[in-house]
Specification:
alpha/beta; 8 strands; 49% helix; two-stranded antiparallel ribbon; 6-stranded parallel β-sheet; 275 residues; Rossmann fold
Length: 275
């Protein structure tokens, strides 16, 4: 296996397997610390190892849903069920405060999931779940152009009730998919996967948040420089101040305060975050 670099206290060169197996707990959620190349290899390995009825669940932890995990034991349990990757500047601050080092890469889902589909050596049968009516169909066309080696077997919008959630899982199973991308927003997407992913018959499910809106052109992405600075949240706040103000202004302050609390007084945290 090729050598890839990631940070570690001993300053030795790590293989991609070493990187993928490095875990940094944040609010009790085990977050992987790996380069993007290492994580592509790790996802391939875990998808190969997934068995019927025990699929791989992949989620991305950012400041917003880390707050949700702090506040709700069910949400925290849903994240802990699978593989959790770091997303954004909030997690970067947290790992420096709590673990003394940076993450090797920012593995946000909007960039990493399309990259994974392009670079994986596996061929998947993919179902796209989420977004408004017609959005997933546009994303399908985009992904077919970017990663044509896969088979895209179905789409469904994300506007369904809790009573319909199991039927949606059976619809995915009927499509023959072995990978489902779930864009229902957090924490709904993680909770849906924790309850229904096994019914789909898929090897893996990946929660992708706002990816469908960006990939379909429904919403614009921040300029590349803003993304490299991990300040895309500022761009989104400027575009949607009413919807995003609570999440990014009040929420970011709450997140930073909770990071400080975990660092200084970990036993005062909610009991489900201490696992």
């Amino acid at each position: 296996m090729a050598q890839v670099q990631c940070t570690n206290p001993g300053q030795r060169s790590l293989t991609s397997a070493d990187c993928a197996n490095a875990i940094r707990p944040i609010f009790g959620i085990p977050v992987q610390a790996a380069t993007s190349d290492a994580m592509i290899d790790e996802l391939d390995r875990r998808c190969d190892a997934a068995r019927a009825g025990e699929p791989l669940q992949v989620a991305f932890l950012n400041a917003h849903n880390a707050n949700l995990c702090w506040e709700n034991a069910d949400v925290a349990a849903a994240f802990r069920r699978g593989l959790v990757l770091n997303d954004g500047i909030g997690l970067e601050i947290a790992t420096r405060v709590l673990h003394g080092e940076a993450f090797p890469d920012n593995l946000n889902g909007t960039d990493f999931v399309p990259l994974y589909l392009e670079k994986t050596s596996r061929v998947f049968r993919i179902f796209l779940l989420g977004g408004a009516e017609g959005v997933a169909d546009k994303v399908l066309s985009t992904f077919q152009a970017r990663a044509p080696q896969h088979h895209y077997v179905g789409t469904r919008h994300g506007y369904f009730t809790d009573a319909e959630a199991a039927d949606v899982a059976r619809e995915i199973a009927a499509s023959g998919a072995d990978l489902v991308l779930v864009a229902l927003g957090s924490p709904r997407q993680e909770l849906w996967m924790s309850r229904h992913l096994a019914t789909t018959g898929c090897r893996a499910g990946i929660s992708v948040g706002g990816l469908f809106d960006f990939a379909s052109g429904t919403k614009p992405r921040a300029p590349m420089l803003v993304r490299r600075l991990q300040c895309e949240w500022v761009f989104r706040l400027l575009l949607e101040p009413r919807r995003m103000a609570r999440r990014y202004l009040k929420g970011n302050f709450a997140f930073l305060a909770r990071v400080a609390r975990e660092r200084l007084a970990p036993h005062s945290m909610p009991v489900w975050t201490q696992g």
